[in-house]
Amino acid sequence: MAQQIPVSPQARADDPRADAERGDHTHAVASDLAYRRLVLANVVFVGEPDAGDRGWVLVDAGIPGSAPAIRDAAEARFGRDARPAAIVLTHGHFDHVGVLEDLARDWDAPVFAHALERPYLDGSASYPPPDPSVGGGLMARLSPLYPTSPVDVSERLQTFPADGSVPPMPGWRWIHTPGHSPGHVSFWREADGSLIVGDAFVTTAQESAYAVATQAPEIHGPPMYLTTEWDAAASSVRTLAVLKPERVIAGHGRPLAGPDMRRGLDALARDFERVAVPESGRYVEKPARAEDGSAYRAP
């Protein structure tokens, strides 16, 4: 049975006291790196406080209805009317692009994503249906209700360069980490060991409503109900573990840092098939892949 890997609370990478003093509704992880939790998922802000107009980047675009919260946090952190240089995406699931169309339009911002994720972002393809049979818990059982239809930001959509660079984020590179979705990517800054992983792995048991509410720190495989290629997901986690990151921000759960986090990530990489992969399920038996087109459906 799939299971989480507990991590000591001392591995938390944010400082609630400093966050409260700053009052911009975000949680700092490094001087130029912060996140905001939006009920189900996190968005990440890359840029120094008070960076001003076009001086920062938004990673992922929240759940439906979260635009006011994202705008308020951005204004408080970067300054009034401060628009991002770009919105970059780990992937296009509904809880990561919930207000993408609105924010990209209102901020007149380019959107960057992996080529294999483009069909979900230009209106041409829907994701495969969720699998409510995996993971147990309320969040998994409710997954058939989650939207899988595409958004359309085709006028602003750009593909990440093949050289691994992230044009609006100097010093960072993107790493293809498929499994949870075909074009899922993570972002790595070698200079200080910062890693933004989206849903390649998460730091809460996202299938469980209780775990989502309590946010107890743990290392966990990608959310099961939307993961469509388990062999690729395992390979992606092992690719990220080799980096030996200093700090990690996932799409779900609290950011983690330090030796205890790395031990947990190493354990997930080593035992992925035992601790992360469901015993059975729609995509355990028959993965949905980009190569044969089964990862894309008519919208």
TrEMBL record:
Comp. bias intervals (Basic and acidic residues): 12-24
Gene3D superfamilies per the UniProt record, alphabetical: Ribonuclease Z/Hydroxyacylglutathione hydrolase-like (3.60.15.10)
Matching Pfam families: Lactamase_B (PF00753)
Region of interest (Disordered), ranges: 1-24, 280-299
Superkingdom of origin: Bacteria
Keywords: Hydrolase
Keyword Hydrolase (UniProt): yes
SMART domains assigned to the protein according to its UniProt record, in alphabetical order: Lactamase_B
Regions crossing the membrane: none
Keyword set includes Hydrolase: yes
Alphabetized GO MF terms: hydrolase activity
Coiled-coil stretches noted in the UniProt entry, renumbered to this chain: none
Domain called Metallo-beta-lactamase: residue spans: 40-252
Name of the protein in question: Hydroxyacylglutathione hydrolase
